[in-house]
């Protein structure tokens, strides 16, 4: 097996020092998931990674990237010593990008970064050696970590780039040295750090500063701030390709919107394209337009791209749908949509639209008509208007088809108060308070959406609902 990093290459990249020769086949920042042969990076976060270096070496780490010799570790241990560990990781990331001929796609946006990244991964499979970010590794350490993990023989890489504060995206985009940049959308998110949605748009548009000469910007049209995005591309002299439900370079000409999948005919600059997305929801189909536009920008085979895209399904916590069987004899249960990882007004609206498409089953539970139920947790980091943004969910058209809305968190109390009485379910300060009542919140035949920001921990409710029966992934139905 070819080493990902030799000691000589790592020293050359970082300017660090090491007392011995070693070879690493991976890069890890967590001893819990570290594999033998990994280079352990002793980052400082809630805990100082130097405290875990001895454990990492014991577990088989090939070496450790450190800024000092940790206590309990011999000076002649395989250590790569640099002045600053994070800067050392960044140097590894830049060196990994420089040594590969890979074409790199960067993805940012207020909603849909991770699902779009995973669509790209599925689409690209079979069209070369693909490297993509794991989980949501999209911040100041996640991007260099993803790059540092990139093998030299990678053909195409997908880098997810996020932000919490102004000025974060551009340096990460430049580090990734992009061939294609996708902005999924701009929506109210992280407003606690920005004065307006226009400020968010300018920060998202800064990903374009990381595009190579001749690169392609793939931009959403039809937003109130789309002009900021297209103006930025024009100012930088970039080729811009737009996508939207309608009126853009890549649009939806027609579609069949089923419970299990969406079949779409797209209008593109090169003619009609047919594709399938193994999930309900028009927003997934719109993001798929950006994914296919990226494939077109890279000159990839359109048929293979459409086939690959058709294999994508939402990951856990990102809209994954599964059936919870509560009575295996009669095959009775309820459908669960796990969207408990992230939430802002745009993503909640999209999830409610998906919920409205799914049909409950009547006459199988305690309550005769099957119901659409939403369990919604706080949307975090929305700034001074957060309560108004929560209350505004009550006016979303998709709620007309939702029977009951349960609310979790102090901010969601505003929505709870705004709901009509017949839809107003329970409210709890924390997700933990609802856990003992999980069985009473749902019934056989129901379709249940659980949605909220990660910090409000509505994932605990997802786990409790799963324990009411036996999970069976819904998206396996009809998969090709």
From TrEMBL:
<keyword id="KW-0573">Peptidoglycan synthesis</keyword>
<dbReference type="GO" id="GO:0051301">
    <property type="term" value="P:cell division"/>
</dbReference>
<dbReference type="GO" id="GO:0008360">
    <property type="term" value="P:regulation of cell shape"/>
</dbReference>
<dbReference type="InterPro" id="IPR005863">
    <property type="entry name" value="UDP-N-AcMur_synth"/>
</dbReference>
<dbReference type="Pfam" id="PF02875">
    <property type="entry name" value="Mur_ligase_C"/>
</dbReference>
<dbReference type="InterPro" id="IPR013221">
    <property type="entry name" value="Mur_ligase_cen"/>
</dbReference>
<keyword id="KW-0067">ATP-binding</keyword>
<protein>
    <recommendedName>
        <fullName>UDP-N-acetylmuramoyl-tripeptide--D-alanyl-D-alanine ligase</fullName>
        <ecNumber>6.3.2.10</ecNumber>
    </recommendedName>
</protein>
<keyword id="KW-0963">Cytoplasm</keyword>
<feature type="domain" description="Mur ligase N-terminal catalytic">
    <location>
        <begin position="24"/>
        <end position="83"/>
    </location>
</feature>
<dbReference type="GO" id="GO:0071555">
    <property type="term" value="P:cell wall organization"/>
</dbReference>
<dbReference type="InterPro" id="IPR004101">
    <property type="entry name" value="Mur_ligase_C"/>
</dbReference>
<feature type="domain" description="Mur ligase C-terminal">
    <location>
        <begin position="333"/>
        <end position="453"/>
    </location>
</feature>
<comment type="function">
    <text>Involved in cell wall formation. Catalyzes the final step in the synthesis of UDP-N-acetylmuramoyl-pentapeptide, the precursor of murein.</text>
</comment>
<comment type="similarity">
    <text>Belongs to the MurCDEF family. MurF subfamily.</text>
</comment>
<feature type="binding site">
    <location>
        <begin position="109"/>
        <end position="115"/>
    </location>
    <ligand>
        <name>ATP</name>
    </ligand>
</feature>
<keyword id="KW-0132">Cell division</keyword>
<dbReference type="GO" id="GO:0005737">
    <property type="term" value="C:cytoplasm"/>
</dbReference>
<dbReference type="GO" id="GO:0047480">
    <property type="term" value="F:UDP-N-acetylmuramoyl-tripeptide-D-alanyl-D-alanine ligase activity"/>
</dbReference>
<dbReference type="GO" id="GO:0009252">
    <property type="term" value="P:peptidoglycan biosynthetic process"/>
</dbReference>
<dbReference type="InterPro" id="IPR036565">
    <property type="entry name" value="Mur-like_cat_sf"/>
</dbReference>
<feature type="domain" description="Mur ligase central">
    <location>
        <begin position="107"/>
        <end position="295"/>
    </location>
</feature>
<dbReference type="Pfam" id="PF08245">
    <property type="entry name" value="Mur_ligase_M"/>
</dbReference>
<dbReference type="InterPro" id="IPR035911">
    <property type="entry name" value="MurE/MurF_N"/>
</dbReference>
<keyword id="KW-0961">Cell wall biogenesis/degradation</keyword>
<keyword id="KW-0547">Nucleotide-binding</keyword>
<keyword id="KW-0131">Cell cycle</keyword>
<dbReference type="GO" id="GO:0005524">
    <property type="term" value="F:ATP binding"/>
</dbReference>
<dbReference type="InterPro" id="IPR000713">
    <property type="entry name" value="Mur_ligase_N"/>
</dbReference>
<dbReference type="InterPro" id="IPR051046">
    <property type="entry name" value="MurCDEF_CellWall_CoF430Synth"/>
</dbReference>
<keyword id="KW-0436">Ligase</keyword>
<dbReference type="InterPro" id="IPR036615">
    <property type="entry name" value="Mur_ligase_C_dom_sf"/>
</dbReference>
<dbReference type="Pfam" id="PF01225">
    <property type="entry name" value="Mur_ligase"/>
</dbReference>
<comment type="pathway">
    <text>Cell wall biogenesis; peptidoglycan biosynthesis.</text>
</comment>
<keyword id="KW-0133">Cell shape</keyword>
């Amino acid at each position: 097996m070819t080493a990902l990093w030799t000691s000589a290459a790592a020293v050359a990249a970082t300017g660090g020092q090491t007392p011995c020769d070693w070879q690493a086949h991976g890069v890890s920042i967590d001893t819990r998931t570290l594999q033998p042969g990994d280079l352990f990076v002793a980052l400082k976060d809630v805990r100082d990674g130097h405290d875990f270096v001895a454990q990492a070496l014991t577990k088989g780490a090939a070496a450790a990237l450190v800024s000092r010799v940790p206590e309990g570790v011999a000076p002649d241990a395989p250590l790569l010593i640099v002045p600053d560990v994070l800067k050392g990781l960044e140097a590894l990331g830049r060196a990994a990008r420089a040594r590969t001929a890979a074409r790199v796609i960067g993805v940012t946006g207020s909603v849909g970064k991770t699902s779009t990244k995973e669509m790209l991964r599925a689409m690209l499979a079979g069209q070369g050696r693909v490297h993509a970010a794991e989980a949501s590794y999209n911040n100041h350490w996640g991007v260099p970590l993803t790059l540092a993990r990139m093998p030299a023989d990678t053909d195409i890489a997908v880098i997810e780039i996020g932000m919490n504060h102004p000025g974060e995206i551009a340096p990460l985009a430049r580090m990734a040295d992009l061939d294609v940049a996708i902005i999924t959308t701009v929506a109210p998110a992280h407003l606690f750090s920005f004065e307006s949605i226009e400020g968010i748009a300018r920060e998202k548009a800064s990903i374009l500063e990381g595009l190579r000469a001749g690169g392609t910007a793939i931009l959403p049209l039809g937003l109130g701030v789309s002009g900021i995005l297209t103006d930025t591309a024009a100012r930088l002299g970039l080729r811009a390709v737009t996508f939207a439900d309608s009126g853009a370079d890549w649009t939806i000409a027609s579609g069949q919107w089923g419970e299990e999948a969406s079949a779409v005919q797209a209008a593109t600059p090169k003619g009609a394209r047919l594709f399938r997305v193994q999930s309900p929801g028009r927003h997934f189909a719109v993001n798929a337009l950006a994914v296919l536009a990226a494939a077109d920008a890279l000159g990839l085979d359109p048929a293979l791209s459409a086939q690959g895209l058709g294999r994508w399904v939402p990951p856990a916590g990102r809209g994954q749908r599964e059936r919870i069987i509560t009575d295996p004899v009669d095959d009775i249960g309820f459908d669960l949509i796990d969207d408990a990882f992230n939430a802002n007004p745009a993503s909640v609206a999209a999830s409610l639209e998906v919920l409205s498409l799914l049909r409950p089953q009547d006459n199988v539970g305690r309550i005769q008509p099957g119901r659409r139920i939403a369990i919604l947790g706080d949307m975090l980091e929305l700034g001074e208007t957060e309560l108004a943004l929560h209350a505004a969910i009550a006016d979303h058209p998709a709620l007309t088809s939702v029977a009951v809305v349960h609310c979790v968190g102090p901010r969601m109390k505003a929505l709870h108060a705004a709901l009509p009485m017949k839809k107003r379910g329970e409210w709890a300060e924390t997700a933990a308070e609802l856990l003992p009542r999980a069985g009473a919140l749902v019934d056989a035949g129901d379709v249940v959406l659980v949605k909220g920001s990660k910090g409000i921990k509505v994932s605990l409710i997802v786990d409790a609902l799963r324990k009411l029966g036996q999970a069976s992934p819904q998206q396996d139905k009809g998969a090709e």
